[in-house]
C-alpha cells in the first residue's frame, strides 16, 4: 500500500512538471510572437528560453513581494539582469554629481505656470496640463539620464509658455562630454551641458538613433534654453513641486532592479541601488491609503502601464526622493 502511494506521488509530480513545462513553452511561443523575437541559431534560442524561464521565476518572487503590482512576461524577459542593466540602465550612477546642486527654496515667491494649470492636492498628473510628451523608447542604449533630463526640459519649456515640443536627447548623448552617452550619465550634468551649449535642438532636426555619434548640434536650430536647475528635498519636495501651480514634473533617478518584469499596479517593495533615471509626472491618493507616484519611463509604451509605473508614496521607495531635479527652461530669444 505504501509503495502504491509513493508511486502515485511520483506520477502526480511528473504530471505537474510536464504541465509546467507545457505552460512555460506556451508562454515562450506567445512571447516570441508578441514581440517579434527571432534568434540566430537553435543554440541561441535554447539559451534565451532558459533565461526566459529564470525571468518567470524572478517575476513570481517579485509578485509575492509586491501584491499590489503585477509582474510577468515583458519584452525584456529573454535578457539576464546583467544584460538588461548594461543595455537599458546606468551601470555606474554617480551620486556626487548631485551634491552641489542647490535645493529649491519653496518659501521664495514662485510665479504660476503660464498655462493656468492648477493641481488638485490629492490626485494630479501633469499630463492633464498638456506638458508631457509621449512615451519614448531609448532602445539598447544606456541613455535614460539624457531622456530624463530632456523630458524635464520639455515640460518646463511648455510651462513657461512655449508649445509642447519634442527636444533632442540625441544632442545630449552625442555632445555632452561630461557624461558617457550610451554608457550612462546623470541629468544634472546634462542640464549643465544644455545651459553651456546655449540650448537644445528639436528632435525633428536632431533625431534619436539609439547609439552614440559625433556631435551634430546646430545652434541656429535651438528651441529651448536652460537657465537654472535645482534639486528637491525628499518625497516632501517631490510633492511640493508636483502639487503647486508654480511647479511641474520632476526628473528622478531610482533603483529599477525589479522593473524588468513589471507590467502594472503599485510597486510596494524596492531596493535602493540607483541605476536608472525617469520622469515623475504626478501622484494619486496623496495623504490617503494606497498613495502612489506616477512615473514615466523611457522603455516604450508596450512596457508597464502604457510606459508608466506606479510607486508607493511614503517610504522613499526605490530612492525616489533622493535625486529629484527640476529646471528653468525658456524659448530662445
Description:
This protein is of the alpha+beta class. It has helices at residues 2-35, 42-65, 81-88, 144-159, 169-175, 187-197, 234-242, and strands at residues 69-71, 124-125, 224-231, 250-254, 262-267, 276-284, 292-296, 308-312, 325-331. It has two domains: 2-78, Helix Hairpins, CATH 1.10.287; 84-331, Cathepsin B, Chain A (Alpha-Beta Complex), CATH 3.90.70. Helix content is 33%, strand content 15%. Strands 1, 2, 4, 5, 6, 7 and 8 form a seven-stranded mixed beta sheet that branches. Strands 3-9 form a two-stranded antiparallel ribbon. Helix 4 (144-159) crosses helix 5 (169-175) and helix 4 (144-159) crosses helix 6.
Domains counted in the coordinates: how many?
2
Q: Termini distance?
A: 90 Å
What is the molecular shape? globular
Structural class: alpha+beta
Name the helicity range: 25-40%
CATH C-level category of the largest domain = Alpha Beta
Query: What would the CATH topology of the largest domain be?
Result: Cathepsin B, Chain A
Using DSSP, what is the number of strands? 9
CATH-defined superfamily of the largest domain: Cysteine proteinases
Task: Provide the descriptors you would attach to this structure in a database record.
333 residues, alpha+beta, Helix Hairpins, Cathepsin B, Chain A, 2 domains, 7-stranded mixed beta sheet, two-stranded antiparallel sheet, 7 helices, 33% helix, 15% strand
Amino acid at each position: 500500500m505504501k509503495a502504491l502511494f509513493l508511486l502515485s506521488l511520483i506520477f502526480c509530480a511528473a504530471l505537474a512538471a510536464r504541465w509546467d513545462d507545457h505552460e512555460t513553452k506556451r508562454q515562450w511561443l506567445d512571447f516570441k510572437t508578441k514581440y517579434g523575437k527571432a534568434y540566430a541559431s537553435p543554440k541561441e534560442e535554447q539559451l534565451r528560453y532558459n533565461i526566459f524561464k529564470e525571468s518567470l521565476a524572478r517575476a513570481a518572487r517579485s509578485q509575492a513581494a509586491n501584491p499590489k503590482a503585477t509582474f510577468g512576461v515583458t519584452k525584456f524577459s529573454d535578457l539576464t539582469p546583467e544584460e538588461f542593466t548594461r543595455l537599458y540602465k546606468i551601470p555606474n550612477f554617480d551620486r556626487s554629481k548631485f551634491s552641489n546642486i542647490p535645493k529649491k527654496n519653496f518659501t521664495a515667491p514662485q510665479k504660476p505656470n503660464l498655462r493656468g494649470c492648477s493641481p488638485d492636492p490629492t490626485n494630479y498628473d501633469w499630463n492633464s496640463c498638456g506638458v508631457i510628451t509621449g512615451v519614448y523608447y531609448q532602445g539598447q542604449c544606456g541613455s535614460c539620464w539624457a531622456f530624463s533630463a530632456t523630458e524635464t526640459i520639455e515640460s518646463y519649456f511648455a510651462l513657461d509658455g512655449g508649445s509642447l515640443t519634442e527636444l533632442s536627447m540625441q544632442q545630449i548623448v552625442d555632445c555632452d562630454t561630461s557624461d558617457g552617452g550610451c554608457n550612462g550619465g546623470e541629468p544634472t550634468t546634462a542640464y549643465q551641458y544644455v545651459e553651456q551649449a546655449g540650448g537644445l535642438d528639436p528632435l525633428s532636426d536632431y533625431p534619436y538613433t539609439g547609439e552614440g555619434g559625433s556631435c551634430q548640434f546646430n545652434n541656429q536650430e535651438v528651441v529651448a534654453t536652460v537657465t537654472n536647475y535645482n534639486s528637491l528635498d525628499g518625497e516632501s519636495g517631490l510633492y511640493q513641486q508636483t502639487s503647486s501651480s508654480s511647479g511641474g514634473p520632476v526628473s528622478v533617478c531610482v533603483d529599477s532592479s525589479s522593473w524588468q518584469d513589471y507590467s502594472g499596479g503599485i510597486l510596494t517593495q524596492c531596493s535602493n541601488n540607483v541605476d536608472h533615471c525617469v520622469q515623475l509626472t504626478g501622484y494619486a491618493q496623496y495623504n490617503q491609503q494606497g498613495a502612489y507616484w506616477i512615473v514615466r519611463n523611457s522603455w516604450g509604451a508596450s512596457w508597464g502601464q502604457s510606459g508608466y509605473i506606479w510607486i508607493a508614496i511614503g517610504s522613499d521607495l526605490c530612492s525616489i526622493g533622493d535625486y529629484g531635479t527640476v529646471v528653468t527652461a525658456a524659448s530662445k530669444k
